[in-house]
Amino acid sequence: MKKVIAFALFTLIICISCSRVAERDFFRFPMTNIEADCPLECLLIGEDTLSGVMTADCIVRDSIIIATSRTDHLFSISGIGGELIGEYCRRGRAGNELLSALPLTETYINGTDIYADIYSPMDTKLFVWNISKSLSENRDVYESIIRFESKEKATLQPWMSLYRTDSNHIIVYNSMQSGYSDGLVGVPDYQVYDLESGTLQRQYGLFNAVKKETENQLLSPSTFLTNVDCIKPDRTRLVFGMYFMPVFCILDIKSGEARAYRLKGHDGIDLQKPHRHFVDIQANDDCIYALYSGEEMFKEDGTDVPDQLYVMDWNGHLLCRYSMDRRFSGLSLDGEKLYLTHYNGAAAVVNTDTLKAGL
């Protein structure tokens, strides 16, 4: 996800002749303006408790840290104290190896074991990784490797996220970059795939093909629709926050109904002075936790504005918001512990009971 955002920022930089874009034009579903009427409270984070092991897109589950690795393996697993347990998912061309992989967006429990689904875009394969057995046997254990049909290779290109909706289906956020590279307007979309057949089952059609011509090129809708997302643990809904807009959206996975919520009083899309808004998002069955910035990017003074932490419910209500003393790069939720990570590998921890006290 961080690489996708970096690419989107580069695209914006070279297209400074653009100005403002109407946010509502991107969405095919209703948008509601919401007031930030809850007070902005100060959240004292304290010193970082972890150092050197937390990547921006890491996952903490049952007090183990699963992070991307730059070695000949794709992922490393560490204890919560920072000690390395092992490295897993070897890179390569053998049958049980991966040429590439999307960053993990979730882990889940099947029986008593912890699992993660790893999608390799270059192989068009989904590796069902049994993390618990890999740890106990100290080797890569894949329960299955799902091969997608060649006719689906042009469409199965998850851009930044992949989640299980049930034992046989996944929902992905597809960038549709293949169409755009062929001169078409590729509009990103959420899609559902069947894991038994490897075929596309459903497209939600959430977004419009809003085009913005510049002096040099046409900006892809993928640039504007960069987002961060998280699935509700009961698998019924998905929340996504827009990186370039002060907008978060909630999708009912079964019905396909969606609604956008626009934060009043925040700057919208302005490509001459772009702002970053929703940086990362996590959720449990009760609340949504969003790392929010609102800061103008590429400021001349070079100063950093501390981030905020927003807490919403699954009906789109803003419950509370907190100012923090510094910037963070990501979130990971493990039970009642919310980890706020830095790009340098450090992390701070907040107990969600502390946040509930503000409700």
UniProtKB/TrEMBL annotation:
<keyword id="KW-0732">Signal</keyword>
<dbReference type="InterPro" id="IPR011044">
    <property type="entry name" value="Quino_amine_DH_bsu"/>
</dbReference>
<feature type="signal peptide">
    <location>
        <begin position="1"/>
        <end position="22"/>
    </location>
</feature>
<protein>
    <recommendedName>
        <fullName>Lipoprotein</fullName>
    </recommendedName>
</protein>
